[in-house]
Amino acid sequence: MKVGLFIPCYVDALYPQVGVATLKVLRHLGVDVTYPKGQTCCGQPMANGGFESKAVPLAEKMENLFAGYDYVVTPSVSCTAFVRHHYPNLLKDSHTCELASKCMELVEFLHDVVKPDGPLGSFPHKVSIHNSCHGVRELGLSSPSEEMVAPFNKIRDLLQLKKGIEISEPERKDECCGFGGLFCVEESAVSSRMGLDKVRRHIATGAEYITGADCSCLMHQSSIAKKNGLQIQFMHVAEILAAGL
Amino acid sequence: MSNKDDILGRIRSGIRERYDMPSLGDLQATVYDEPLAAFKASSEATGSKVVELAPETDIDKAIRDLFPDAGVIASNLPEVHIATLNPDTVGSAQELNGTDVGVIRGSFGVAENGCIWIPQSMKEKAVCFISENLVILLPKAAIVNNMHEAYRQIDLGEYGYGTFISGPSKTADIAQTLVMGAQAARSVTVLLV
Amino acid sequence: MSKHSKKAKGFLKDARYSEWHDATFWAVREKRDGMAHGLPEWERLREKASKIKLHTLSHLDQYLEQFASQAEKNGAIVHWAADAEDFNNIVFGILSEHGVKKIVKSKSMLTEECGMNPFLESKGIEVVETDLGERIIQLLGQAPSHIVMPAVHLTPDQVGELFEAEGISNEPGNHDPTYLTYRARLSLRKEFLTAGAGMTGANFGIAATGDIVVCTNEGNADMSTSCPKLHIAALGLEKVIPDYDSLAVFQRLLCRSATGQPTTTYTSHFRTARPGAAPMHIILVDNGRSEWIANPEHWQTLKCIRCGSCMNTCPVYRRSGGYSYSYFIPGPVGVNLGMLRNAKAHSGNVSACTLCLSCQSVCPVKINLGEQIYQWRQQLPAFGTAPLGKRTLCEGMSMVYDHPLLYKTATGVIKKPFHSLKLDKDE
Predict the structure, then answer these.
(1) In a domain? residue A65
(2) Which residues 4-23 of chain C have a CB within 8 Å of chain A?
(3) Is residue B11 part of a domain?
(4) Domain span at residue B71?
(5) Does the beta carbon of C423 lie under 8 angstroms from any beta carbon of chain A?
(6) ipTM of this complex prediction, to 2 decimal places
(7) How many independent structural domains does chain A possess?
(8) Contact assessment for residue B93 and residue C222, using Cβ atoms and an 8 Å cutoff
(9) Residue C423 lies in a domain
């Protein structure tokens, strides 16, 4: 099983430590993973903003870069959702599309493919899970609160492998944090209010850390927390899983 | 061309794919071990008062006990002798305004939501809504589980009108505060007979 | 900034009110969740409802003909209105024919859509809304801020002062909702007794029987049609469904989704006029719908049964209020309906979405509301309504990301991007 690591643009630039942690966890679990050079962006920001055509060349580049891998794994929920749900349409005229079916977000890849069952080091802290919208409603990382299905949460399942961890979820467990890509620029007032509401609900759980599978949601909330002087730390799930390995 | 032909023509040319009607046989809708108990609970949740009458109970007495001060009682039911107005014989629906208690008959109740099917069986259906208090006589054996069963047996009767009623008229339009008694009956009492 | 975002910013300035607004609608969402959890068949119901709508809309020509011919057999007079103007004229024509000077009506988003009230008023007809919320905003000269709870944006004090000014209440300072509701009851009762016609919308038209089905909690549709000698019912073409078996599915979903009740208090079936009254008039209104059916990306918006649950769950609606949207129906379905109605005029609403997709997960008929908003965004350049700044930004991003060297230079100013790190195994 040959796995390609996809590090999205903003993780590359702003959260390199999340990339490092992802690599560390995958290697610790014996996954044959490599990082092909020349990666930039999957095209999601432009497409969600209404400029899908600008994403087409980037989708073609991604397809070429990851040809020959069995899986492409990335520590980003929204990029995975975009590749999975939009690439087939973006590439329909120009290119075969394999990425849509082989791109997996880190949590789902670990949970559904690698299936680690032993302990994975310790993390003796209280964390509050941020269930990113695209993780919940597009990738199925957890049961959507709107739907009447048996409850599950793959992030929680993985975090439970850490010894000493205490896991909670905020009230309104999967309400959007208000990032939304260009939404946070275009609708800054609503976006900030949503972020503030979200961070406060995470803090109300008594957690030391807010964790989640998507850096963009965490980035948005951490900047809101900072602006409003709210004391809580942020860690991507990959970083928690990699801690102490 | 008429509007009708224009509209239907545009629809026909706009439809690209015709989808099949799904089968509804596999819905596995909720049924209850004790439909009557479920009906009582859901009725009460909608704000109704449910009273189970002992066999042979005098309906007049039951109504009088419930509403000792009622002046105007409207009904066309043969078992209600204390009615002072009859919705079959009033000159106009407006004459029913001021009714303290309206007494009507329901055909069956629905366990899942407390609905009672009321086919119009009087000339002026206003009695079902205009009365301050509504009393519905309902045979306690006539309870169905859910709306699927209910819709298999409704009959609008000769007047071509029927309604499911569950509880008193209500509104939450002012600041989301629930208030019973908006435009129609302010209380509903279900007499199970 | 989009039109919506400017208004939303204003809405959020009042922190206490906007928090109340968010909490109020979230509570409705939670009540809906409670109802849905009470039915193990909930997801099956949604799936069936979605499929029945797909079937019905894609056979709408047949069902409309069946509905109309059944209704006519029942003795009703069926009219076909091409657009809003046509509709208003038909209504006025019927009222004139019967010499009606005052009508009482139940809530109808369709009459709102067609601007019927101001039209009739300009012709000298008095129109009295009888849903309490609608009556309140009618007296204030406002539009609804929510399709199910049209006056929810007002406080009891505002309603109380209105009722004092209108002479509806007679205890100055008593702004208790129970008292105010009672005073409105007394005032509306007079209107029911003296109106010349009653008008209702329709939640459903049943093709198999010709029934008009109207769901209310207040009983005002029934009051509106029990005293006057004339009943006019108006329904959008998409309200017609096949039969009672289908209706059972929608009836179970509608109120649970809308307000979190297991049913509305009244689910009323109108088939023929009551004894001694004029024949019932049924007006089927197109007003764009027959064209929307041909829209390959957006025709499914017509599945909507107007429950409002997408508004209640929308984190943006809850924090921006109904008046931040330029179309009279707000929230996710309103963004989509507004774009179908007039894309140029309502493009300013498509920014009001984080693409969180909660709307399409609550929607009882499974309209892909969020995905459609994504699609509308793609079409803004064609309407000439794409924001210029956003366009420049996206073009810039595309260029940088398309060229790894440019990207490297751009991210080079950042201390240590991941791609510059030394990894044991990379290609």
Answers:
(1) yes
(2) 4-5, 8-9, 12, 18, 22
(3) no
(4) 29-192
(5) yes
(6) 0.98
(7) 2
(8) no
(9) no
Q: CA distances (Å), A127 to each of A11, A76, A119, A170, B39, in order? A: 21, 19, 18, 10, 45
Does C139 fall in a domain?
A: yes
Residues A85 and A39 in one domain: yes
| The domain boundary residue, chosen from A70, A91, A114 | A114
User: Is C159 touching B (CB cutoff 8 A)?
Assistant: yes
For C323, residues 6+ apart whose C-beta sits below 8 A from its C-beta are C7, C11, C143, C145, C153, C330
- Is residue C425 over pLDDT 70? no
Chain C residues 284-343 with a CB less than 8 Å from chain B: 284, 286, 290-291, 293-294, 296, 299
Residue C328 lies in a domain: yes
What's the pLDDT tens digit per position in B90-148? 999 999 999 999 999 999 999 999 999 999 999 999 999 999 999 999 999 999 999 99
CA dist B13 and B7 (Å) reads 10
C263 and C327 together in one domain: no
Of C309, C328, C293, C310, which Cα lies nearest the Cα of C53?
C293
The pTM of the whole model exceeds 0.90: yes
User: Helices C244-258 & C15-37, crossing angle to 10 degrees?
Assistant: 140
User: Side chain identity at A212, as an amino acid letter?
Assistant: G
Could you give the 3-state DSSP secondary structure of residue C142? Answer: coil
Neighbours of chain B (3+ CB pairs under 8 A): C
Residue B173 touches partner C, C-beta closer than 8 Å: yes
Whether residue B13 lies inside any domain: the answer is: no
Cα dist. B141→B37, B91, B107, C220, C409 in Å? 11, 36, 10, 31, 80
> What is the average pLDDT value for chain C, to the nearest integer?
94
Q: Which chains touch C (3 or more CB pairs under 8 A)?
A: A, B
Whole-angstrom Cα distance, residue C342 to residue C345? 5
What's the CATH number where A110 sits? 3.40.50
User: What is the Cα–Cα distance from B99 to C219, expressed in whole angstroms?
Assistant: 16
In a shared domain, residues C54 and C68 = yes
Query: Mapping DSSP to helix (H, G, I), strand (E, B) and coil, where does residue B72 land?
Result: coil
Summarised one tens digit per residue, pLDDT across range A43-70 is 888 888 888 888 999 999 999 999 999 9
Q: Are B82 and B118 in contact (CB under 8 A)?
A: no
The answer on A108 and A195 residing in a single domain is no
Angle made by CA atoms C153, C198, B101, in degrees to the nearest 5:
85
A218-238 mean pLDDT: 97
Contact at 8 Å (CB) between B116 and B138?
Answer: yes
DSSP C162-220: HHHHTTS--STT---HHHHHHHHHHHHHHHHHH-SEEEE--SEEETTT--EEEEESS-H
* C28 contacts C34 by C-beta, under 8 angstroms: no
Domain of residue A40, residue span: 2-114
- Give the C-alpha separation, C35 to A33, whole Å: 47
Total tally of structural domains belonging to chain C: 3
pLDDT tens digits for range B27-65: 999 999 999 999 999 999 999 999 999 999 999 999 999
Same domain, A69 and A142: no
Distance CA C112, CA C381 (A): 30
C313 and C359 inside one domain: yes
Stretch (H or E) spanning A130: strand A126-130
| CATH code of residue C189 | 3.40.50.10420
Judge whether C250 and C305 are in contact, CB under 8 Å: yes
**Which structural domain, as residue segments, surrounds residue C394?**
388-414
Q: Do chains A and C touch (3 or more CB pairs under 8 A)?
A: yes
User: What backbone phi and psi angles, to 5 degrees, belong to C127?
Assistant: -115, 125
Pair C43, C68 in one domain: yes
**Residue B1 falls inside a structural domain:** no
Do the domain assignments include residue A51?
Answer: yes
Pull the structure tokens for residue B52. 């189970």
